[in-house]
């Protein structure tokens, strides 16, 4: 039997400040539940592997559903596999407040990305149960299906279905990493095609959505702060650039008579680094994949295909950066006397967080005696999908060394519980 869950629990509890056990919030309960979820899909490297729509994701959902019911929540699951646990407020007619995240993971990922958002949302209910508090507005804890997208290389499947942003024709074309169709995969999880596409929720019934998530970066660690206020969620654009040159013999082709596609790609990559900061302080651009053809030791590269991931929390500067990157790529190709092919694979609009919602998160943080710190989210989250339709906020929690999607992913229990207290303050503000 793997001893990791107990070791994980012990590590969480080591150094925990028991004074954070107040107002009904219990750090030991949070640690116990994080450790329990770590058992599901545990890898040989002590990471987490719970692919969307998998048996492991289903097991994790069922475990949290049991905790929801024990906390007295009314639990239901929609046609997309999203789970909602509801605590009724005194005003049954008022739009609800929703908080949560996801339980799926990337292959061999960490144990905080997703589960922390679900468990802190549930901890608010546990605290209210302990103190006998009932909100005026009904409150729901949410688990969204397939956020990470490691199965279909897309993700956010549950939240997209809930808000009704799914393109049915494109969704049914999806083939997973095992070669199985979207329909076959979801049916194995007990979900029907009709149920998935009919799971759109009446969004006017939701007043606000809050997501707690680990930062997956180092800004909070560098500031020595446990939590921070997200100002916006970056929208990615994925470009695929192909430089077409001429393959040739590495020994018989003079240096002044070459059309080397790899040299052109290298010049492009070197230039790319300076562009984002010239456009926006929150913009980034990354070359993540590089494919060289014919990829021979003694052959001049005739074709190079590379990907560029461009992100910013502001649409206008993100789109300006995309245009400038493409223009620069064309100039490099012209300089090297080769041709360029550009394909845009996705372009998702960024989601800024309103100043009003940022202010509410700041207030909740400062009520805990902590300095509020503003930072953007470079990664996509369910909040990005939901935030297009209803008021949304995100609370980031400090990540050790900024590591994420890795078994070494770590957030201290002190920081996890501080986040639960902040979320409780925020939810009480929103529900009253």
TrEMBL record:
A single GO molecular function term of this UniProt record: hydrolase activity, acting on carbon-nitrogen (but not peptide) bonds, in linear amidines
Annotated cofactor note: Binds 2 Zn(2+) ions per subunit.
Domain Peptidase M20 dimerisation residue range list: 233-333
Tree of life domain: Bacteria
Sites where the protein binds Zn(2+) 1: 102, 113, 213
Binding-site residues, Zn(2+) 2: 113, 148, 405
Cofactor(s) demanded: Mn(2+); Zn(2+)
InterPro entries: Amidase_Cbmase (IPR010158), Bact_exopeptidase_dim_dom (IPR036264), Peptidase_M20 (IPR002933), Peptidase_M20_dimer (IPR011650)
Pfam families for the chain: M20_dimer, Peptidase_M20
Keyword terms: Hydrolase, Manganese, Metal-binding, Zinc
Family under the similarity heading: Belongs to the peptidase M20 family.
NCBIfam families assigned: hydantase, PRK09290.1-5
PANTHER family reported in the protein's UniProt record: ALLANTOATE DEIMINASE-RELATED (PTHR32494)
Subunit description: Homodimer.
Protein name: Allantoate amidohydrolase
Lineage: Bacteria, Bacillati, Bacillota, Bacilli, Bacillales
């Amino acid at each position: 039997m793997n001893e990791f869950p107990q070791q994980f629990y012990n590590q969480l509890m080591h150094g925990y400040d028991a004074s954070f056990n107040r107002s009904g919030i219990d750090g030991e309960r949070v640690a116990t539940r994080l450790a329990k979820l770590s058992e599901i899909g545990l890898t040989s490297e002590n990471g987490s592997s719970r692919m969307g729509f998998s048996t492991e994701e289903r097991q994790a959902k069922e475990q949290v559903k049991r905790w929801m019911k024990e906390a007295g929540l009314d639990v239901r699951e929609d046609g997309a596999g999203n789970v909602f646990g509801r605590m009724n407020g005194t005003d049954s007619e008022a739009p609800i407040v929703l908080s949560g995240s996801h339980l799926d993971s990337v292959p061999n990922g960490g144990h905080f990305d997703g589960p922390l958002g679900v468990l802190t949302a549930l901890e608010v209910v546990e605290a209210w149960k302990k103190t006998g508090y009932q909100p005026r507005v009904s409150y729901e804890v949410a688990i969204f299906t397939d956020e990470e997208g490691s199965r279909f290389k897309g993700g956010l499947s549950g939240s997209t279905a809930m808000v009704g942003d799914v393109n049915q024709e494109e969704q049914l074309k999806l083939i997973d990493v095992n070669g199985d169709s979207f329909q076959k995969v979801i049916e194995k999880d007990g979900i029907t095609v009709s149920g998935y596409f009919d799971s759109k929720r009446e969004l006017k019934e939701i007043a606000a959505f809050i997501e707690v998530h680990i930062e997956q970066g180092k800004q909070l660690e560098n500031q020595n702060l446990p939590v921070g206020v997200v100002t916006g969620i970056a929208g990615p654009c994925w470009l695929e650039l192909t430089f077409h040159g001429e393959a040739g013999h590495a020994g018989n082709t003079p240096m002044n008579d070459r059309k080397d596609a790899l040299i052109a790609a290298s010049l492009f990559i070197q230039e790319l680094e300076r562009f984002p900061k010239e456009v926006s302080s929150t913009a980034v651009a990354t070359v993540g994949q590089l494919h060289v053809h014919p990829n021979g030791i003694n052959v001049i590269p005739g074709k190079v295909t590379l990907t560029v991931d461009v992100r910013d929390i502001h649409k206008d500067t993100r789109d300006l950066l995309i245009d400038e990157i493409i223009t620069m790529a064309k100039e490099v190709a012209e300089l090297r006397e080769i041709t360029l092919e550009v394909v845009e694979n996705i372009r998702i609009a960024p989601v800024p967080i309103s100043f009003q919602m940022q202010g509410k998160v700041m207030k909740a943080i400062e009520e805990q005696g902590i300095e509020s710190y503003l930072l953007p989210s470079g990664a996509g989250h369910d909040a990005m999908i939901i935030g297009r339709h209803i008021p949304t906020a995100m609370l980031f929690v400090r990540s050790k060394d900024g590591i994420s999607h890795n078994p070494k992913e770590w957030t201290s229990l002190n920081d996890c519980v501080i986040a639960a207290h902040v979320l409780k303050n925020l939810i009480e503000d929103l529900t009253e």
